[in-house]
Specification:
Oligomer: single chain
Number of helices: 7
Largest sheet: none
Order of helices and strands: HHHHHHH
Radius of gyration: 20 Å
Shape: elongated
């Protein structure tokens, strides 16, 4: 009777082992993006968030305006999920189903350059958003401002987490 291989042995492995802190940091990127996306979806659904009518009107332009916030939320989460590729095997090899590139190693710079630029952009975006929110004159209640900040402040971690994971990916792939 043949003994079945352990499931962990069947999974593809990364070029070099990924430490637990890196896997957790990559997952954290996805989680720090979630509150702001949910806040935008709540705006579209008309959930009372302490905003004045003028603020809702500015965000929800009739027609396409109702699609902008959900699409922005989906795009943001998709970009955050790409961070997982820095710690998973699918971030090191092209999917086998792709013509020409399928199964080949992804060049390190093909991941590091966009991730590095993304880390810079996320850091600038986070700082600018917090700065403008703290200095904006908005029609919003005290608890609404608290909620807005609670949902958007986690984004400040996105850029530094992505930068750290990008450097780790660079070093890990070069050492392998």
């Amino acid at each position: 009777m043949a003994i079945a291989a352990h499931p962990a042995r069947l999974r593809p492995h990364t070029a070099a082992p990924v430490p637990r802190w890196a896997r957790r940091a990559a997952a954290a990127v996805v989680w720090v993006n979630l509150p702001s996306g949910l806040w935008r979806l709540a705006v579209v659904l008309g959930v009372p968030l302490g905003l004045g009518d003028a603020e809702y009107d500015a965000m929800l332009v009739p027609g396409w305006g109702y699609l902008v916030l959900p699409l922005l939320s989906l795009a943001q989460e998709a970009l955050a999920a790409l961070t997982l590729g820095l710690v998973r095997p699918w971030g090191e090899r092209w999917p086998r189903k792709l013509p020409v590139l399928g199964g080949r190693r992804i060049p390190v710079l093909a991941a590091v350059v966009p991730a590095g630029l993304g880390a810079l952009a996320c850091t600038v975006y986070g700082v600018l958003f917090v700065w403008t929110t703290l200095h904006a004159e908005m029609a919003i209640t005290r608890w609404g401002l608290w909620l807005l900040n609670a949902c958007y402040l986690p984004l400040l971690a996105w850029g530094p987490l992505l930068a750290t994971l990008t450097l780790h990916y660079w070093h890990r792939r070069h050492s392998a």
